[in-house]
Task: inverse folding
């Protein structure tokens, strides 16, 4: 019996990673774009704001000397996604990684959430992830190599976060299930799929940085004794995407400082 039943493609010297939602100034995506650039990855940034996406791409190229592309894309629009991913494929080195990081939150309790809000959260967080991953997988299959990382949330695992409620948690739980299914279905094409589930990270997603009182409150639940940073999450994503991450598939890395242990 062959020891390697599935094709073991060589990892290219300069792989490309496509990151959604990497344009916000203090977000997880931008930090990940820099981390990957520093490690020699070419980087594509797809975010709503074309100008900000181009700016991040320029910044990463300048600081790390890698090829980059920044595009304005609403990931909930299937056609925009297909066009953008085709450009990434044509203009950057071999696409190896996709990071489904773009996401919106919803602080509304289940009994109050309206249909419009519910649908928008799922359109971006779930359908957007589906569109981007589907387009990337078509490219991965050509060379039998691909890495998918979904950015879920501790909120999905514990039934609501410190901020996100039903629509957010439900959509982020869908990402955990999708990554596990992709892990099973796509392994034969040399593709791995995993998730990261961050706890409270100090970004702007909840409408501004965490206040000192908020941090104080969060610290009571944090065995590591500090609130998470975007670099904590970027490091985990880099590991799952990289050469050393090839034997992990279908896992969820809880980047939460121990706030939620299960
Ligand atoms: N900050 C936290 O505490 C935390 C915790 C767990 C999970 N997360 C997840 O991490 C990811 C990044 O969050 P962040 O905290 O850096 O927030 P952020 O708001 O800084 O970044 C989210 C990015 O997604 C982009 N985006 C939103 N809708 C989009 C769309 N339709 N198409 C393309 N781009 C779109 C935004 O423009 C923004 O740049 C999100 O998926 C979030 O749910 C964050």
Result:
């Amino acid at each position: 019996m062959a020891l390697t039943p599935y094709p073991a493609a060589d990892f290219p010297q300069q792989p490309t990673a496509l990151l959604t939602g990497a344009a916000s100034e203090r977000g997880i995506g931008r930090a990940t774009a820099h981390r990957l650039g520093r490690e020699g990855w070419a980087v594509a940034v797809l975010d709503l704001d074309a100008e900000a996406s181009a700016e991040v791409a320029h910044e990463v190229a300048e600081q790390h000397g890698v090829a980059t592309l920044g595009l304005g894309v609403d990931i909930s629009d299937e056609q925009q996604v297909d066009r953008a991913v085709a450009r990434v494929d044509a203009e950057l080195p071999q696409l190896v990684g996709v990071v489904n990081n773009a996401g919106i939150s919803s602080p509304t309790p289940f009994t109050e959430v309206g249909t419009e809000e519910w649908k928008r959260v799922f359109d971006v967080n779930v359908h957007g992830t589906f569109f981007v991953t589907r387009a990337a997988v078509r490219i991965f299959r050509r060379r039998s190599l691909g890495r998918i990382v979904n950015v879920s949330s501790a909120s999905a695992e514990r039934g609501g976060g410190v901020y996100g409620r039903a629509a957010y948690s439900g959509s982020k739980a869908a990402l955990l299930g999708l990554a596990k299914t992709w892990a099973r279905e796509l392994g034969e094409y040399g593709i791995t799929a995993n998730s990261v589930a961050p706890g409270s990270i100090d970004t702007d997603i909840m409408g501004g940085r965490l206040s000192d009182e908020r941090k104080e409150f969060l610290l009571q639940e944090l065995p590591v004794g500090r609130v998470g940073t975007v670099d904590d999450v970027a490091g985990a994503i880099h590991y799952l995407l990289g050469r050393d991450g090839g034997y992990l598939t279908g896992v969820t890395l809880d980047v939460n400082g121990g706030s939620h242990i299960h």
In short: The CA atoms of residues 49 and 72 lie 5 Å apart. The longest strand covers residues 42-47. The pocket of nicotinamide-adenine-dinucleotide is lined by residues 20-21, 23-24, 27-29, 47-48, 73-76, 101-105, 124, 128, 151, 153, 198, 200-201, 203-205 (CB under 6 Å). The radius of gyration is 18 Å.
